């Protein structure tokens, strides 16, 4: 099989394209490990943790997702829910420790869904599957975000 240098160069320079390609290989039975940095999802996720992620075939309020940002970085944040904007349906996300939402992102930027937190030693530390209570809290957060946008 011939090697495609343009594809290899694009994947080397673009972390979002690389994450999309890697997550495309993942399955529910064989998730991909991704590193976590920063503090926006504390105390659930801490710098040095890793998450097990699968492709985001479906997304629901409360899910912890892997996002590709416009600047080419990856974020692991929680979905508050969908919102109809002038640009069509978009998703509102927020880090658990962040005081405000990230804004809206198109569905195409949601690359994966995180399932489990692995501590630095590799042991599973927590499940990221949202409870009904968490899903309802996210919907309330979405309503608050929507009201703030209407007032602005």
Task: Give a verbal description of the structure.
This protein has 152 residues and is an alpha+beta fold. The protein has a single domain, classed as Umud Fragment, subunit A. Helix content is 26%, strand content 33%. It has helices spanning 5-13, 15-25, 132-151; strands at residues 32-35, 50-55, 64-68, 74-85, 88-94, 103-105, 110-118, 124-127. Strands 1, 2, 3, 4, 5, 6, 7 and 8 form an eight-stranded antiparallel sheet that branches. The mean pLDDT is 86.
Q: What level of helicity do the residues show?
A: 25-40%
Main sheet overview: 8 strands, antiparallel
Task: Give me the CATH superfamily.
Answer: Umud Fragment, subunit A
Nearest-integer average pLDDT: 86
Poorly predicted sequence stretches spanning 5 or more consecutive residues: none
CATH topological fold name: Umud Fragment, subunit A
Quaternary assembly: single chain
Main attributes of the structure:
Umud Fragment, subunit A; about 150 residues; 3 helices; alpha+beta; eight-stranded antiparallel beta sheet
Short description:
The chain has helices spanning 5-13, 15-25, 132-151; strands at residues 32-35, 50-55, 64-68, 74-85, 88-94, 103-105, 110-118, 124-127. It is α+β, with helices and mostly antiparallel strands.
Write the layout of secondary structure elements.
Layout: H1 5-13, H2 15-25, E1 32-35, E2 50-55, E3 64-68, E4 74-85, E5 88-94, E6 103-105, E7 110-118, E8 124-127, H3 132-151
Antiparallel strand pairs: 1-2, 2-7, 3-4, 3-7, 4-5, 5-6, 7-8
Helix pairs in contact: 1-2
């Amino acid at each position: 099989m011939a090697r495609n240098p343009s594809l290899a160069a694009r994947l080397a320079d673009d972390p979002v394209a690389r994450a999309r390609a890697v997550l495309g290989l993942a399955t529910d039975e064989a998730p991909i490990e991704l590193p976590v940095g920063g503090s926006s999802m504390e105390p659930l996720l801490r710098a040095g943790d890793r998450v097990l992620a699968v492709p985001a075939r479906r997304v629901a309020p409360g899910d912890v997702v892997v996002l590709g940002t416009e600047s080419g970085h990856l974020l692991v944040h929680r979905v508050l829910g969908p919102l109809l904007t002038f640009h069509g349906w978009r998703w509102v996300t927020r880090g658990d420790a962040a005081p405000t939402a990230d804004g809206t992102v198109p569905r195409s930027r949601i690359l994966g869904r995180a399932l489990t937190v692995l501590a630095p030693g590799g042991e599973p530390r927590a499940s990221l599957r949202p409870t009904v209570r968490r899903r309802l809290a996210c919907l309330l957060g979405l309503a608050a975000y929507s009201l703030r946008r209407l007032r602005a």
